[in-house]
Design goal:
The complex is a heterodimer. In chain A, 0% of the residues lie in helices and 52% in strands. The N and C termini of chain A lie far apart (40 Å). By secondary structure, chain A is mainly β. Chain B is 0% helix and 54% strand. Chain B is built from no helices and 11 strands. Chain B is globular, with a radius of gyration of 13 Å. The chains are: A mainly beta, B mainly beta. At the A-B interface, strand 5 of A face strand 5 and strand 10 of B.
């Protein structure tokens, strides 16, 4: 079973601060996805990274896939209250159609 | 376009009762996934279907859980008999083979409470 460990588990910051969330595994993934989940809703896809070393930007969010395709990071610049939620990474090995989800990082951004 | 539809949104039942959760995937999607989410264990895959056929049910906790997909637009997850430890949020998700990198679309979930 492939495990995806996320850190930190919880993060409480003030509006305007920067933060980075990490997603680590000992397994190699064909691609890795980041989802955000808000209370009472299902996870929603933010981005998919496919190539080792790839960097993708989504407004204030920057996603990076590790060179060895075993890890990923999500950096948020100038966090806003609207960024509050549970962030989940999910990897696929390419040999099955299912995703392995990470342990999650719960982010709270306050005014 | 309608997203993944789940019903009911909330279910409260007593231990020992049968519970049936329902899911309508996005039209045209050929994969359907059932997940369970708890604070302790996070988001766990229970079972998934491809073209209505169960492919991997290794995540189903035990024989009390069963899932069916009689057609491309409907799936059920049944728990019989239910137990308090089954309390969780159950999500259904779907995706299309043609989508990039296994992107999945999740429903709003069913919050199950077993007392």
């Amino acid at each position: 079973t492939q495990l995806l460990e996320q850190s930190p588990q919880f993060l409480s910051i003030q509006e305007g601060e920067n933060l980075t969330v990490y997603c680590n595994s000992s397994s190699v993934f064909s691609s890795l996805q980041w989802y955000r989940q808000e209370p009472g809703e299902g996870p929603v896809l933010l981005v998919t990274v496919v190539t080792g070393g790839e960097v993708k930007k989504l407004k204030r969010l920057t996603f990076q896939f590790g060179d060895a395709r075993k890890d990923s990071s999500l950096h948020i610049t100038a966090a806003q209250p609207g960024d509050t939620g549970l962030y989940l990474c999910a990897g696929d090995t390419g040999t099955a159609s299912k995703l392995t989800f990470g342990t999650g990082t719960r982010l709270q951004v306050t005014l | 376009d309608a997203g993944v539809i789940q019903s009911p949104r909330h279910e409260v039942t007593e231990m020992g009762q049968e519970v049936t959760l329902r899911c309508k995937p996005i039209s045209g999607h050929d994969y359907l996934f059932w997940y369970r989410q708890t604070m302790m264990r996070g988001l766990e895959l229970l079972i998934y279907f491809n073209n209505n056929v169960p492919i991997d049910d290794s995540g189903m906790p035990e024989d009390r859980f069963s899932a069916k997909m009689p057609n491309a637009s409907f799936s059920t997850l049944k728990i019989q008999p239910s137990e308090p430890r089954d309390s969780a949020v159950y999500f259904c998700a779907s995706r299309s083979t043609g989508s990039s990198s296994y992107e999945q679309y999740f429903g709003p979930g069913t919050r199950l409470t077993v007392t």
